[in-house]
UniProtKB/TrEMBL annotation:
GO terms for biological process: carbohydrate metabolic process; glucosamine catabolic process; N-acetylglucosamine catabolic process; N-acetylneuraminate catabolic process. Keywords: Carbohydrate metabolism, Hydrolase. SUPFAM superfamilies: NagB/RpiA/CoA transferase-like. One of its GO terms (molecular function) is identical protein binding. This is Glucosamine-6-phosphate deaminase.
């Protein structure tokens, strides 16, 4: 696991966008796994800027989003479809036919989940997966529990997630209780993973994740410890508790200036 501690959110976003851009330059038909939430917004802004400056071309890039709220239609401003178009797809040249997001309104969720996994497989799996992390350690909407599912599935959102995401819905009662998410298998099979964490509310989970030598279904992100190619980029606030423990602050941390 490579660790980068960025000075602030801006720097975290710039480094993440640079890493994504490098991968697209190496492989123009990159299969890019995308995330939603507050964390990647700055990364999308940077990628849009690079595209507008003529430095990046998405015309052959294939995208797969991690998840979608169950029951929200694509034109619902609170859906992840809407988020992705407003913050990214409307401003770059990803071809509409190359965009994949689970359909939260599919009448047959099991069929939709199977279809989604087949599409990912058809493109040879995810090359680069962008991830945020929940305060409870979830990745995608793979919530802590007794077991984690490998394939795309319908899931109940954890109470912590409902609380954290209430800010996007006005009140907790408005947050959908369920979502379709890719499973841990799809994430772990990605060739390269980029995990972003920003802000003081992520400091505790990042310390737990990085300090621990164990994996547990109680902290879904801990499975990333088993992956060969994970880069974690945190801003100073998200790194605060981990840094203070100073146990493993050493060669594992790459200077942000290298990126
Ligand atoms: P956030 O969400 O970026 O809005 O904090 C992260 C997540 O829940 O994965």
């Amino acid at each position: 696991m490579k660790l980068i501690i960025a000075g602030d959110y801006q720097e975290m976003s710039r480094i993440a966008a640079n890493i994504i851009a490098e991968e697209i330059k190496k492989k123009p038909d990159l299969v890019l796994g995308l995330a939603t939430g507050s964390t990647p917004l700055g990364t999308y802004r940077e990628l849009v800027r690079m595209y507008k400056e003529g430095k990046l071309d998405f015309s052959r890039v294939i995208t797969f989003n991690l998840d979608e709220y169950y029951g929200l239609s694509p034109d619902d401003p609170r859906s992840y479809h809407y988020y992705m178009y407003r913050n990214f797809f409307d401003h770059v040249n990803v071809r509409p036919e190359n965009i994949h997001i689970p359909d939260g309104t599919a009448p047959d969720v099991e069929e939709e989940s199977r279809r989604y996994d087949e599409e990912i497989k058809k493109f040879g799996g995810i090359d680069l997966q962008l991830l945020g992390i929940g305060v409870n350690g979830h990745i995608g909407f793979n919530e802590p529990g007794d077991e984690l599912l490998t394939a795309t599935h319908l899931t109940d959102l954890a109470p912590d997630t409902l609380t954290a995401n209430a800010r996007f819905f006005g009140s907790i009662d408005e947050v959908p209780r369920k979502a379709i998410t890719v499973g841990l298998g799809t994430i772990m099979q990605a060739k390269k993973i980029l995990l972003l964490a920003s802000g003081p509310e992520k400091a505790a989970i990042m310390a737990e994740l990085l300090d621990d030598d164990a994996v547990s279904t109680r902290v879904p992100a801990s499975f990333l410890l088993l992956h060969r190619d994970v880069t974690v980029i945190m801003d100073k606030d998200a790194a605060e508790i981990y840094k203070n423990r100073a146990k493993k602050i050493d060669a594992a941390i790459q200077p942000a200036s290298d990126f």
